[in-house]
Task: structure prediction
Amino acid sequence: MTDQNETLENQPENRRSHWVGIGISFSVLAVVVMIGAFGYGFFQLSQINVGLARSVSDLQSRWENSQKQVAVLQKNVDELEQAGQKSLELSAQQEKVLSEWRAAQQGDMNKWHVAEARYLVKLANDHLQFSHDINMALILLQQADSVLQNLQDPGLLEIRKSVAADIANLQALPQTDVTSLYLRAIALDAQVNQLPLPASPLKNDSQPAPAAAVSPDLPWWKAGLEYAWQGLNRIVIIRKNGGNALPLVLPEEKIFLYQNLHAQMENVIWSILHGNIAVYQASLVRVTAWIQQYFDQDSQATKNMLQSLDELRKINIQPPVTNLSNTLQLFEQNFAKTDQAQAGQ
Result:
């Protein structure tokens, strides 16, 4: 009887344990499902982030390309604006010439010829200021003087005097043949590699001095020192040079020496073309000093090079400071008087 009662009491507990196990299983299953769903969601989110990063990188690259294209377009626009400005200036000049030509067609030929003479003087002034070409400036001034001479107008007397004074001043100026000087500098630069270095900066002794005999009466340690000293004298040879000896140039330094000379000669050529007297003289002095210091002074090539450099140093390449502003101002005053007289009529 007692066993039956215990069995009946244990049945509800067994049922309760069964349902608890089922609940735990469902809970574990739910947790696993949630973890899986969370992992899948995280994976999808990572994929989306990677895609967004790629999209952002692509947009950044496209934006940079767009900026470059905008910069190129802006540069083209600026160039077009500059070209347009130059076209406007040229059109204004052409319009001025046409107006003067129309005035000439109406019977004022003197004014047209005066404008022609002024244009020739302005061209001469431009050649003096920008290219320092005295010969071309003289030719243009002489043409302008010829045009004014044919007019036979007393009102142009002051202008003709000024043009004649300009011609005389230019003829009195010392002229430098820039082309010839440029070609001479080019030729000297080509001769730099032919300059010889000293063949033997140190004179070799014909025969080494014979070793002195060691006295047999010396103690053993003094005899050993004497033998060691004689051996050292045969290994280490000391020679003395005079103060006028040229410095020794190592083989690996030779190319740098020639390159430095070429660089200085290029400075000379540049200064000739630009009329820079300071660079011209400084470069020639430096080249001369290096040749005198490092190269064989007995060589004929070295002597010829030094002589040519000395001749170049005596040439003044600095262009004279001249301008024709006074003559141009007289032209402007003449045109102002002519216009005022025509307006009064």
Summary: Residues 108-173+326-344 form one domain. Residues 58 and 195 are 62 Å apart (CA to CA).
